UniProtKB/TrEMBL annotation:
Residues 2-159 form the Obg domain. Keywords: Cytoplasm, GTP-binding, Hydrolase, Magnesium, Metal-binding, Nucleotide-binding. This is GTPase Obg. It is an enzyme of class 3 (hydrolase). Residues 63-83, 456-504 have a biased composition (Basic and acidic residues).
Length: 504
């Protein structure tokens, strides 16, 4: 059964924002007391944080789909919806977060280090927040914005100062068990070590960690054996120790050949840029000739030691069983680690805060002319315009008019005209896979979708209402007409035009 996992693909989704609500206050003797719809709550974020108690990514291997809580919708009486709870995922220290395309998002080193990998959607505004002097009683609200959703790759790269590397059964686990308090699994068959084992070693005032890396074989950098899976655990190590088995009975094996094979695998492996990108072959390296308690192995080690020193390696003849040569080797590792730490500190460049203000002519969007199936379309690309479209309830005409107002004020119509759009052109707003399609009409009536020009609402801005002067003029004209009619009737009576001819 798998108990250690150091690489997983995690599918994360932030919470959706809650919808705003369109509500009208209703009280006794005040049936229309004004808009009082509350805003929706923001969706929860997905956050990765370093947990000292976490040592493996096994939980995410078993449950790779994780989602944060959605924001709650608003309610009447100006009640805003609650924010969705953030989803905090604990990961081991040394976890590298990247996209499937290989783009590194974060390197989580240090207790409490965290990164937000998916941001929750914004909550929609209620009609109370949308009210203005011209739109006093909005009959719509904005929808909540969907949260971000993406796939991320988590890779655990051990935080060790020294890595013990070599062929299977070279005695790496035995050495870790005698120089530290670690108790890795030890057996007399290859690939006993299936997971990296970390041990803490103290040498005088120095204290450093040693990683026992699973055995490497020829072709490990190309995926053979377990080497490719665990070479990532030596990327952070500043000192590499070749552990060579001088007592092996396998044909074709000798200390110099084993060293050349492992060096070739280190040279073929390319570490990540985020971790310095320094090739493994350029790290400080030393050679440990192990199993010197066997007489034949001791003779072989003394025979090849001069050749190894000529190559520039520090060579130590040791035995994990007899505790031979361990003290000298431990202090040599401590000196190499201290030198590497001092060099690293000198290379650290203080981080500067870079402020990149937006350009004064940055509109927050751009219009791109494109071809879609032989048809010319115009794509409006921008985070703000995409968010506006996502928050629009297209079943509500007034909400659609409000969107048209926002786009017009932002200058989208002017940009479309400049790009060559004509009435009836196809306009797409939003991501290509889920864009909203419009048939553009620059003369389209906006506002309240009732009567009037763009930005007006016929319910409270009726341009057909008469002015006071027009009312007075109409009143006097009516009075004058009534007086003229009475005078005409009186003149007819006086002239005898009302005499009945049958009575004559």
């Amino acid at each position: 059964m798998t108990t250690f996992v150091d690489r997983v693909i995690l599918h994360v989704a932030a919470g959706d924002g809650g919808h705003g609500v369109a509500s009208i206050r209703r009280e006794k003797f005040k049936p229309l007391g004004g808009p009082d719809g509350g805003n929706g709550g923001h969706g929860g974020d997905v956050i990765l944080t370093v947990d000292p108690q976490s040592t493996t990514l096994l939980d995410y291997h078993r449950s790779p789909h994780r989602r944060a809580d959605n924001g709650r919708p608003g309610a009447g009486d100006e009640r805003d919806g609650a924010k969705g709870a953030d989803l905090i995922l604990p990961v081991p220290e040394g976890t590298v977060v990247s996209t499937r395309d290989g783009e590194v998002l974060a390197d989580l080193v240090g207790p409490g280090a965290s990164v937000t990998v998916a941001t929750g959607g914004r909550g929609g505004l209620g009609n109370r927040a949308l009210a203005s002097t011209k739109r006093k009683a909005p009959g719509f609200a904005l929808l909540g914005e969907p949260g971000e959703s993406l796939d991320i790759v988590l890779e655990l790269k051990s935080l060790a100062d020294v890595a013990l590397i070599g062929f299977p059964s070279a005695g790496k686990s035995s050495l870790v068990s005698v120089i530290s308090a670690a108790r890795p699994k030890i057996a007399d068959y290859p690939f006993t070590t299936l997971v990296p084992n970390l041990g803490v070693v103290t040498a005088g005032s120095s204290r450093f960690t040693v990683a026992d890396v699973p055995g490497l074989i020829p072709g490990a950098s190309e995926g053979r054996g377990l080497g490719l899976e665990f070479l990532r655990h030596v990327e952070r190590c500043s000192v590499l120790v070749h552990v060579i088995d001088c007592a092996t009975l396998e044909p074709g094996r000798d200390p110099l050949t084993d060293l050349d094979v492992i060096e070739a695998e280190l040279a073929a492996y390319v570490p990540g840029d985020l971790l310095g990108g320094r090739p493994l072959a350029e790290r400080v390296r030393m050679v440990v000739l192990n199993k010197a308690d066997v007489p034949e192995a001791r003779e072989l080690a003394e025979l090849v030691e001069p050749d190894l020193r000529e190559r520039g390696y520090d060579v130590f003849i040791v035995s994990a069983v007899a505790h031979l040569g361990l003290k000298e080797w431990i202090f040599a590792m401590a000196r190499a680690v201290d030198e590497a730490r001092a060099q690293m500190e000198s290379e650290i460049v203080p981080q500067r805060v870079v402020i990149r203000p937006k350009s004064v002519d940055d509109k927050g969007f751009r219009v791109v002319r494109d071809q879609d199936g032989g048809e010319t379309v115009f794509r409006v690309i921008g985070d703000k315009t995409t968010r506006w479209v996502r928050q629009t309830d297209f079943s509500n005409d007034e909400a659609v008019g409000y969107l048209a107002d926002r786009l017009q004020r932002a200058g989208v119509e002017d940009a479309l005209l400049a790009a060559g759009a004509v009435p009836g052109a196809t306009v797409l707003i939003g991501p290509p896979e889920n864009a909203v399609v419009f048939d553009w009409d620059p003369t389209m009536v906006g506002g309240a979708e009732l009567l009037g020009g763009r930005g007006t609402d016929g319910r409270f801005d009726d341009k057909s209402r008469r002015t006071n002067a027009e009312r007075r003029e109409e009143f006097h004209a009516r009075k004058d007409a009534q007086t003229a009619a009475r005078d005409e009737l009186a003149a007819e009576r006086k002239a005898g035009h009302w005499t009945d001819p049958d009575s004559v």
